[in-house]
Amino acid sequence: MTEQEILQGLYDRTLVGDAPAVLDLTGRGLASGMAPETMLFDALIPSLEEVGARFERGDFFVPEMLIAGRAMAGAMEVLRPLLAQTGATSLGTFLMGTVKGDVHDIGKNLVNIMLEGAGFQVIDLGVQVAPEKFVAAIREHRPDIVGFSAFLTTTMPMFKANINALEKAGLRDQVIVMVGGAPVTQEYADAVGADGYAADASTAVRRAKELLAERRAMAGTSS
Amino acid sequence: MHTVLRSRTREVVIGHDRPFCVIGERINPTGRAKFAEALRAGDLSQVVVDVERQVAAGAHVLDVNAGVPLTDEAELLAAVIKLVQEHTDLPLCIDSSVVEALSAGLAVYQGKALVNSVTGEDDRLAEILPLVKRHGAAVVALANDETGIPETAEQRLEITGKIVRVAVEEYGIPVEDIVIDPLAMTVGADTDAVNTTLETIRAIREAYGLNMCLGASNVSFGLPDRHALSAAFLPMAAAAGLTSAIMNALAPECVTAARAADLLLGNDPWGAAWIAAYRARRT
Lengths: 223, 283
Hints:
The complex is a heterodimer.
Chain A: H1 3-15, H2 19-31, H3 36-57, H4 62-86, E1 93-98, H5 106-118, E2 121-124, H6 131-141, E3 145-149, H7 157-168, E4 176-180, H8 186-192, E5 196-197, H9 201-222
Chain B: E1 3-6, E2 11-14, E3 21-27, H1 33-40, H2 45-57, E4 61-65, H3 73-87, E5 92-95, H4 99-108, E6 114-119, H5 122-135, E7 138-142, H6 153-170, E8 178-181, H7 193-208, E9 211-215, H8 226-240, E10 244-247, H9 252-264, H10 272-282
Parallel strand pairs in B: 3-4, 3-10, 4-5, 5-6, 6-7, 7-8, 8-9, 9-10
Antiparallel strand pairs in B: 1-2
Helix pairs in contact in B: 2-3, 3-4, 4-5, 6-7, 7-8, 8-9
C-alpha cells in the first residue's frame, strides 16, 4: 500500500467505525515508516471531524458516532505513546466527568469522541464524579479545561458545587470550566460561573478551542 | 396484582390482565427549550395544549414534570398539576427527582397519584417512601442504586427485592402500589440493552408479579425512525410482563402497538377495543 492509500483507508474505515481495519492500517502505516502525526492529523482527525459534521446535520446517528470513536480510540492506543516520544503536542488536555449523583454518559462520551477527534487529550473520569475527585484529578493531570456533564435538573447544581470546590482548592484560575447536558442552558452556565457551555458535541469542540485560544492569548499578553 | 390510580372521578387499573397503561410523557420541559422558557415566565398555556392532545391520543395517565432550571420546581409543579387536573380527569404521574417538588405536587393532587420516582438508594428510599405512604400514593421505583445502573438482570432483580422489602416492611406500603422500573437504556449505545431490559422484566414478573413501568422512548434515543422502534419494543416488553410505559402518546404507531399487544396477549377480549378504535377512525 502507498502512504496515500493508507491515509485514505484510515479515513474511510474510521468513518464507518471499522475498528479492526483501522488498527490494522495503523500498524501497516507504522511498519512502512509513516509518522504517527501524519496518520493522526491527515486521516484520523479529519475523519472524526466528518463524523461530527454528519452527526450535526442529522445524517449520522449515535451508534455510528460511537463506533467511529471506538475505531479512532483503538488507533490512538497505538499512536499515543509514539506521539509522546516525538514530542507532538496535543491541542490541550480536557478532563471530563458526569457529576455526582448522575449516571448518564452518552452525551459526555460523544463529546469525548469529538474532542479526541479534534486533537485534544481527553481524560474521562466516568460518571458519579464527586467534587473532591475532580479536584484531585485536576491536581494530578493539570488539564487546560475541565468539563462537567449533567443530564438531570437535580444534578445540575453540582456544577456550582464543583466550581466552589475548585475555588476552595485554589484551582479555579488554573482551569477553564465547561458545562453541558440536556437540561443545561447558556443562562444556567453563566449563573453557576462556568466559562463555557455548548448544546452539542461539535459546538463543544469549537467552544473549547475558542476558550483555549482566548486563555492563551491572555496569558501571552500578561507575561 | 393491580395498581389502582385515581383522579377525583376516574380510576385506572394497571395489571398483567389489563390493557397496557399508556402514560403520556409530553408534559416535561427537558429538551423543550421554548416550553421551559414559557414555564419559567409563568405561561402555562402549552400545558393545556399538551393535556388535550394526549387525552385525545388515548393516554390513560399523564406524566407531569416541571423541572425547569433556576425556578422553584416545587411551586411550579404544584401549579402545573392543579392546572392539568382542571383540564382532564385522567390520573397523574408526578415526576420529579426533587423531594420537595414531589411533596408539593402530592399536596395539591386530588386522587391517588403515581409518584415518579424513587430508586434503591438508601437515602432516596428514606426521603420519598414516607411521602408515598402519607399520601397513599403508588410509586415508580427504579431498579438502580448507589452503584449506578446495574448491567445485568440479576442485579436489577436484587435491587427490586430490596425496594420491596423496605417499602413493605419498613414503611407499610402495599406491595401492589410499588411499580418497578426495570430500566430501558438506548440500544444505540449498547446492542444488548433491550435484551437486558426484557430479561429483567421477565425475572421481576416471575419473582414478584409486580407491575412495571419504564421510559419507552429511551430505547430509541439517538436513532432514526424512533417511533417505529418504540412501536416494536412495546409489544415485546408487554409480552415479557411490562404493564405500563411512560411514552410518546402523540405517536399513533406507539399507541396502536400497545393496543395491538392488548389484543394479541388476551387483554382485549374479542378485540372489542381494537375494533372500536378502527370504527371510530373510519367515521
